[in-house]
Amino acid sequence: MQHVAVIGSGTMGNGIAHVFAQHGFPVALIDINQSALDRALTTIGKNLDRQVAKGTLSEADKSATLGRITAYTNLAEGVAQADVVVEAATENVELKLNIFRELDQHAPAGAILASNTSSISITKIAAVTKRPTQVIGMHFMNPVPVMKLVEVIRGYATSDEVTAQVMDLSRQLGKTPTEVNDYPGFVANRILMPMINEAIITLFEGVAGVEEIDTVMKLGMAHPMGPLQLADFIGLDVCLAILRVLHEGLGNPKYAPCPLLVNMVMAGRLGVKSGEGFYTWT
Ligand code: CAA
C-alpha cells in the first residue's frame, strides 16, 4: 500500500485527499493552518455524503475513507512516510518552489513529488530539488471526485519509470490519465483559457450578455457550464494568472488577457470565492 501526502487543504487538496482515501490509500493531509484542515475534513465528509445519498458509496466506506485521512500542520512529519506527495498549495511560484525545497529535504529519498499546478512549469519546480527525475505534474480537475481526467505532465527531466508509475496510480483512482509535455498551460489550460478569454472579449465588445454567451455554449456545444460561469468557478484571478503564463511563455498576442478580466480582478471580483464575478453568488 502506498502512503500519500497531500500538501494544501483547499478545494483541490481536499478533493485529491478524498479520492486517494476513497481508493484505499492512507493519506496525510497537510496545511499550515489547523482551521483550514478542519474545514477540509468537513467538506470531504459532505462530499462523501453526496455519494452515500446517490447510493454509490456505503456508510461503512464513507467512515473508512475518513479514517484513512490524517491531518498535519507540520510538513516534515506529514511527509515522513510518503511514497507519493501531491502538492496542491496556492498557485504562486515562489510558494511552490519553497514547498518543493522542503519536500526534497523531508520526503523519503524514493518518493515521487507531484504538483497539481495548473500552469507553473514542472521543469522549473523540479530544478529546485535534487531529484528532478522524480518530479512530475499530476493535474486534477475540479470537482476532483467527479472529473475523470488527470493531466500527467512530464518535466524536462521526469523519468519514464516515474511517469509510468503516476499513470498507473491515476488509474487506481478510477481516473483517466493523459500524458503531456511541460509547455505553458500544458494542454488543458492552453485550450480552455483562450476559450474563456474569448468569451470575456465577446462580452467586453458588447456582442452579447453574460447569460446569452453561456447559453450558446451550454446548449449549442453541450458544455456542462458556460465559459463565464466556469470562469467564476475557477476564479477570475486564477484565469488571469494562467493567461499571463500563456502570453509570456508562448509570446503570442492572441493570449493577451481581456482588459475586462484584468479590471474585474483588480476590483476584487473573483467569482464564486468573492461572491461576485460574471454572476452574483450568495
Ligand atoms: N464531490 C463529490 N461529488 C460531487 C461533487 C463533489 N465535490 N460535486 C458534484 N458532485 C456530483 C453530484 O453528486 C452529482 O452526481 P450524479 O451525477 O451521480 O448525480 C454530479 O456530481 C453532478 O452534480 P450536480 O447534479 O450537483 O451538478 P451538475 O450536474 O450541474 O454538475 C459539475 C456539476 C460536475 C461541476 C458540472 O457542472 C461540470 O462538469 N462543470 C464543468 C466542470 C469543469 O469544467 N471542470 C474543470 C475546470 S478546469 C480545472 O479544474 C483545471 C484548471 O486548471 C483551471
Task: Walk me through this protein's architecture.
By secondary structure, the protein is an alpha/beta fold. It has 2 domains: 4-181, Rossmann fold (3-Layer(aba) Sandwich); 189-274, N-(1-d-carboxylethyl)-l-norvaline Dehydrogenase, domain 2, CATH 1.10.1040.10. 49% of the residues lie in helices and 13% in strands. The chain contains 12 helices and 8 strands. The chain has helices at 11-22, 34-54, 59-67, 75-79, 93-106, 122-126, 160-172, 188-204, 210-221, 227-234, 236-250, 259-266, and strands spanning 4-7, 27-30, 69-72, 84-87, 112-115, 135-140, 149-154, 176-181. Strand 4, helix 5 and strand 5 form a beta-alpha-beta unit. Helix 8 crosses helix 11. The protein is globular and about 55 Å long. The relative contact order is 0.09. The model has no long low-confidence stretch (mean pLDDT 97). Bound molecules: acetoacetyl-coenzyme A. Acetoacetyl-coenzyme A binds next to helix 2, helix 8 and helix 10.
- What summary fits the major beta sheet? 8 strands, mixed
Alpha-carbon Rg, integer: 19 Å
Strand content of the residues, in percent?
A: 5-15%
Bound molecules: acetoacetyl-coenzyme A
Structural class: alpha/beta
Q: Give the N-to-C terminal Cα separation.
A: 42 Å
Look up the CATH topology of the largest domain: Rossmann fold
Q: What gross morphology would you assign?
A: globular
Number of helices: 12
Order of helices and strands: EHEHHEHEHEHEEHEHHHHH
Show unreliable segments: none
Top-tier CATH class of the largest domain? Alpha Beta
Task: Provide the spatial order of strands within the biggest beta sheet.
Answer: 3-2-1-4-5-6-7-8
Instruction: Assign a percent range to the helix content.
Output: 40-55%
Work out the number of β strands: 8
CATH architecture of the largest domain: 3-Layer(aba) Sandwich
Identify the CATH homologous superfamily of the largest domain.
NAD(P)-binding Rossmann-like Domain
Count the domains.
2
Mean pLDDT: 97
